[in-house]
């Protein structure tokens, strides 16, 4: 098990390294290859020559690519200095670069956005996990009933409707028409938990609806398969009451595949839910990424990409380890 | 003695077990671990043994679906041990295989006609009366109706599917058919129909069979000679009657005594005479030293752990009755009320 | 002497099980009746789809969770009627007074719980007051009784870590942990090698002698039946077509289908026959059973008594050894002696 763990962590680090290399390559080399000037991309076409040279020197754009990459990695691990003569800017680890456009270090910029994204993703995750799994289980237990058919039709709608549609519809109904929920801004949890909650409710529900629909369908299918297994028949033959048969024996294996999907979904959401954040005007990682793309702010895009990749890789790792814990067939070979 | 259609010597197939990031080989499943035998033209050689002893692997080696790790396979005087796929193509006509699972061995998206004519087309066999007529004749031959030509496998029962598999194997008029548990998945009455069919086809087309099965009574019924396998090796091989009347190897004796006899009157005697093997078959990754049956053998002595008994003629056995045991079972010893002396592994 | 004979431990009367499916109504069991005394073994034989498993699941009341299943008739276990009993009453008997082992022990055990935990669970559900430690000791004791080496270590293993034979032993340990008075074994050795089969049959026989339970042994292998059963039931197309004491049934089988079964089996205890004499054709669909005697499309004697085989369903008659066939007893005896027996 320990060897397995070490191997997996080693793999995860390797994957991240490859991701940094590739993203770095794309963002820093492509302009070079296409003959455009990265320094220009940084500060826009209107910049004068002195400013451009200053930037070039500060970013070390004259260095060979591998040297630049090395410096970038060093920045990640140990922090780095951006020097242009006497004008030194220190960027502490983990340094994701320096956005010359907003004149800010990327790391703190993104760190500010993380709580928003985390709040959105975790809240929605709890909602869809409970909602999706519960409806899936109930549907499976009452397969073919009216309830089952209604739920599954709803789930089909949930899977097929895009988030900007459901999001805008929900806003229109709950905020503007019924006036049940305020239209407003993100409020940090520490400032006012109640406001934080109320403000996030609609984004949570909208995002959760999309995922819950998928989870309900998946759970239902898994449960139906599990309920047909021989060991469920054995559990009944032992004289276990139906609630133990379902609640312990069937759920245990019916929900195992959900763990995998959940980990991966959550991992990718933590890197930013661009559409949801845009629809509800939440300033999270996704929103930041959108702004950066609009403004050609390469270090920020690189930063968001790296953070998102890290979450996905870590989620993958966690899922595999958890899977090893819950499925003895994986753990014990 | 009639001519040998197939001769294998020292045949081995080891499946590597790899581990870790770099797929380091840490061992091997010794599925077939050195077998010698011959199959004579026109005979049926039965291959029996417990699950996992290497019967299917041996069958796949004979047809060269698998390449041996070591040893030699000679078919009609030609060494085919390491022939490439292209070199094997002309020989594919002569050696065909029938599989155990009548459900998974037929492509569900192809019609029966397509399935049975495929080998004819691949091998470019001219069919003077037309492909369809040729296939329909094959269908009739195996007891199906020519109208089944355009139907799909799922429309057939297990027994009928097995007949389709047999028709496909027969299409090329092979000399040798390796039948890997062809009746094991079938109900008794259907099983008997298929066994009869195989026997009829054998006499009609001069076929040679290697009949792989774990059911000793079916093997006895259909085979001329029988080889008993254990953990990748042949323990005993003999003419059917010699083997069943005079089993020499303790494993053969145990295997035979375990078969339930459909006669309640003899129940008590059968139980008294039964040699109950304890424990499980050891892992083929790490077979026991010396004689590989020794961990479950009631006759085992010290030498059995040290020296591997060769497969040779023992006592006053007739020619061709070979046993790999240092202490072969003698007739009047015939297992009266013996429970095994040892062992838990 | 009293004129009222005591009811046998298990008595099944006119059991019928139907399933509604998309293709139509599956008449899985139609009107079977049989009984079994404590300490005795009843063998049920028949080819796949003949209704053996459905019959045994009906005794355990396991069709109740299927919304498409309909069970009628009577099942008396120890003077309690089970078809009309409440779900809770039947649940309390399952795993307690009556228990079951299944064909494929790997899929019949939960992959995520240890073998020991599953046995403990079976014990505690019927012994609610018992603490975990006692239950654990009981489970280890059972594992030892069924011949699993190092039971206290293997207690913590999962089913996939056991070999096929050990899994079936563990299943047996689980089924017997509450000293059931009725054990149903549904093809317990079909997935196993002969050597392991012999071990498992031996084990069931020994444990039965020890516990004095009634055993129903379901199998498609007449050899297994002959080894174990006191009485035998032959099923075809969801019906009992022959029933009697094992010795009688094997020596003087009466039904043409039973003859076919025996003729299909190569036997190790006889000289090798030139040819097997199987039943022709294949088993019927239970959605569209043939009219009259369900066996008539495959029966070589169907035309013997006019049209009756094609129109009338034969009923099981004849006392201890009873048969469902329109031919007279003399006729059948004659055919068996002259045409069938010489070919067996
Ligand atoms: N491709 C493979 N890779 C690794 N091991 C294999 C492979 N094929 C077979 N084995 C192993 O080789 C051994 C022999 O397998 P084989 O299928 O020949 O057995 P068998 O005698 O046909 O058994 P059965 O009666 O169950 O069909 C087994 O331990 C099996 O797990
Ligand atoms: N849940 C079910 N729904 C529909 N048909 C079923 C169901 N269970 C069993 N059957 C059918 O009932 C018949 C008898 O099955 P079974 O008792 O399992 O046969 P066997 O004798 O092989 O044990 C078969 O045709 C089977 O397909
Ligand atoms: S060689 Fe020894 S261990 Fe092997 S079968 Fe013979 S007596 Fe048994
Ligand atoms: S009733 Fe008629 S068809 Fe049925 S078994 Fe008897 S003779 Fe055959
Ligand atoms: Mg095989
Ligand atoms: Mg069954």
From TrEMBL, chain A:
Where in the cell? Answer: Cell membrane
The alphabetized UniProt keywords are:
Cell membrane, Membrane, Transmembrane, Transmembrane helix, Transport
InterPro entries per the UniProt record, alphabetical = BPD_transp_1_N, MetI-like, MetI-like_sf
- Is Cell membrane there in the keyword field? yes
Instruction: Kindly list the residue ranges recorded as spanning the membrane.
Output: 12-30, 116-138, 150-176, 196-216, 258-280, 300-326
Pfam family name, one: BPD_transp_1_N
User: Membrane topology for this entry?
Assistant: Multi-pass membrane protein
Q: Which CDD domains match?
A: TM_PBP2 (cd06261)
Name of the protein this chain belongs to: ABC transporter permease
Instruction: Give the source species.
Output: Actinoplanes awajinensis subsp. mycoplanecinus
Automatic annotation (TrEMBL), chain B:
Top-level lineage group? Bacteria
Every ABC transporter domain range = 6-256
The record's keywords, sorted A to Z, are: ATP-binding, Nucleotide-binding, Transport
Write down the InterPro entries for this protein, in alphabetical order: AAA+_ATPase, ABC_transp_ATP-bind, ABC_transporter-like_ATP-bd, ABC_transporter-like_CS, Oligopep_ABC_C, P-loop_NTPase
Return any one Pfam family short name: oligo_HPY
Q: Which family does it belong to?
A: Belongs to the ABC transporter superfamily.
Q: What is this protein called?
A: ABC transporter domain-containing protein
Automatic annotation (TrEMBL), chain C:
**Main localization of the protein?**
membrane
Q: Which Pfam families match?
A: ABC_tran, oligo_HPY
Q: Does the keyword Glycoprotein apply?
A: no
Q: Which residues form the signal peptide?
A: none
Span-the-membrane segments of this chain are none
Query: What does the UniProt keyword field contain?
Result: ATP-binding, Cell membrane, Membrane, Nucleotide-binding, Transport
What the entry lists under SMART domains is as follows: AAA
Show the CDD domains listed in the entry: ABC_NikE_OppD_transporters (cd03257)
Gene3D superfamilies the record matches:
P-loop containing nucleotide triphosphate hydrolases
Q: Which InterPro entries match?
A: AAA+_ATPase, ABC_Ni/Peptide_Import, ABC_transporter-like_ATP-bd, ABC_transporter-like_CS, Oligopep_ABC_C, P-loop_NTPase
Give one GO term, molecular function aspect: ATP binding
Stored PANTHER family: DIPEPTIDE TRANSPORT ATP-BINDING PROTEIN DPPD, OLIGOPEPTIDE TRANSPORT ATP-BINDING PROTEIN APPD
| Cross-referenced NCBIfam families | oligo_HPY (TIGR01727)
Name the UniProt record assigns to this protein: Dipeptide/oligopeptide/nickel ABC transporter ATP-binding protein
